[in-house]
Amino acid sequence: MAGSALSAVDALLARELERFEREHPRSLELAREAEASLLQGVPMPWMVRWAGGFPVFAAEAAGARFRDVDGHEYVDFCLGDTAAMTGHSPEPTVRAIEEQARRGITLMLPSEDALVVSRELARRFGLPRWQFALTATDANRFAIRLARELTGRPKILVFNWCYHGTVDETFATLDGDRVVEREGSIGKPVPLEETTRVVEWNDVEDLEREVVQGDVACVLTEPALTNIGIVLPEPGFHEALREITRATGTLLIVDETHTICAGPGGYTAAHGLEPDLLTIGKPIAGGIPAAAYGFSEDVASRLEAMLPTDERADVGGIGGTAAANVLSLAAMRATLEEVLTDEAFARMIELGERFETGVAEAIERHGLPWHVTRLGCRVEYLFRAERPRNGAEAAAGGDAELDRLMHLYMLNRGILMTPFHNMALMSPATTAADVDAHTEAFDEAASELAS
Ligand SMILES: Cc1ncc(COP(=O)(O)O)c(C=O)c1O
Q1: SS3 for 72?
Q2: 81: which of 151, 288, 290, 325 lies 20 to 30 Å off by Cα?
Q3: For 4-42, how does the pLDDT look when each residue is reduced to its tens digit (9 = 90+)?
Q4: For ligand 1, what atom is nearest to the CA of residue 138?
Q5: Beta carbon of 222 within 6 Å of any ligand 1 atom
Q6: What are the angstrom distances between the C-alpha of 129 and each of 76, 135, 250, 296, 300?
Q7: Binning pLDDT at 50, 70 and 90, where does residue 49 land?
Q8: Looking at the DSSP assignment, which residues form a beta bridge with residue 382?
Q9: Ligand 1, from 163, 168, 171, 228: best to mutate by most atoms within 8 Å of Cβ?
Q10: Measuring from atom 9 of ligand 1, which residue has the nearest CA?
Q11: From ligand 1's centre to the CA of 435, what distance in Å?
């Protein structure tokens, strides 16, 4: 950005910070009190990352909106960073949770819902067999372990600047040709050279070079990167990825946790991908912790021939006491059958298009060197003119100050964007008026920054 615009960022940030603090006295009070009993004053590490210097404390949420402890109402485009993509507390899910909670919460026994949900996941994603976990992180962790066991190979391959949850092997980035610890990663268990190969997204040549080494059990990837901004695959990339992994006996794990935004069967169904394993978590139970991982028939039968069914079954590093609990399965069933429906996706994607158009027009109107990208009902703006081709380009294009200002600017005008990047998600409860409220605030910010 031009120097004049950069100095505008500082001045605007100071003004917005002052307004935020003035208008959120109760959140500030709670944030100060929390310092005594919560590590870093927050219940979970990422909650330190809110733009106002202290987090907004939530009072209640419903649909696409929430209210804070100071009485402000917000349009929520963060939606729990996809965990509430269903909208907050969707009625069918709440009803199922209420009913199930009175009939048992967790048993270490299967319920009939497990069959219904696995069939529905099979219909949506095209993989015939499924298992359940509590988080997408766990689903990824279990998928990786199974891939190692099946192939007898030690390493995984991920793409530079990926994110798949708190999975040790994935906290790796590229420094030139070297695999290094991702900035900020805490307490790595073993040197990454022993566990991880990393290549740039969209780079078929490098992918092939690393996979043919013969020590890669699986490639773990989102079908489009969504955690360093949205970086879409170039034409032919997925075909090449599938061909190379098949040719080398490397398993392909597709993580649909965020890219479910592309449609009812995620990017996989929308683009006819054929992964060996697929993982998904976050919104599939309407906000109740739940995740699932699916297998191709080939992988499922190979696993069944190999996995123990005796007393060793519970100590293999896969599963968990509360995984597949009957409450989360009831919530998944209701969410898949009645909330994240085909019709809901059609509306959500239409709203995504409206959001994208509003932002693109404002960028154009104010002549800012920014752009906007969309994947289904997920929209993201980046403060650079060119679309990044890969994770390194996307990471290099970040602008921490401007990023903070935009989040705060929105927050002060009753709009919550996803932290860490400028991402917005549409839920079945989001309305055109909600989208237009963002467009108006975005236009106001763009106009101040361009002047
Ligand atoms: C693509 C992807 N996979 C997995 C995860 C992990 O999800 P969770 O933190 O719910 O385990 C995330 C979280 O942001 C994600 O973006």
Answers
A1: coil
A2: 325
A3: 355 699 999 999 999 999 999 999 999 999 999 999 999
A4: 11
A5: yes
A6: 34, 18, 19, 7, 7
A7: confident
A8: 371
A9: 163
A10: 165
A11: 25
